[in-house]
Write a structure and sequence with these properties.
3 strands; single chain; alpha+beta; about 140 residues
Amino acid sequence: KDDAREYFSGKKESTDKSGEIAVNVIAAIAGSEPVMEVVNMVNVGQVDNLPRGFALETNGMIHASGYTPLAVGPVPDVLKNVLEPHIVSQSMLVDACLERNRKKALEALLVNPMCFFMATDDIMAMGKEALEANKKFSDSI
């Protein structure tokens, strides 16, 4: 408690590293040493048995010029089987938006693994509620 009192009173400053990833990322972008972090990147082949063009959480080197995805090769089949339904659902949703097709957007929820525990009527009601709540953005769909 004495340390806490000293920190809060301003008598003592913390010199401990916070462990925040953002500090290292900002430093790398600013020209310091590159840093490897887990980041969301479009698959350009770093995971070679998943479709290209989809966003993945993957390892990447962050540096002053931007970022470079790191190749990890194929994911194990069991993981690929878990990921593929999400990819299908997201692909359907993107297509629905590009085609301005509300029915297809709602159908994308039906195949979304995150909704498998829900009844079909509840999924459709949730989708319609989400579209209404985001009307400013979803009116073009």
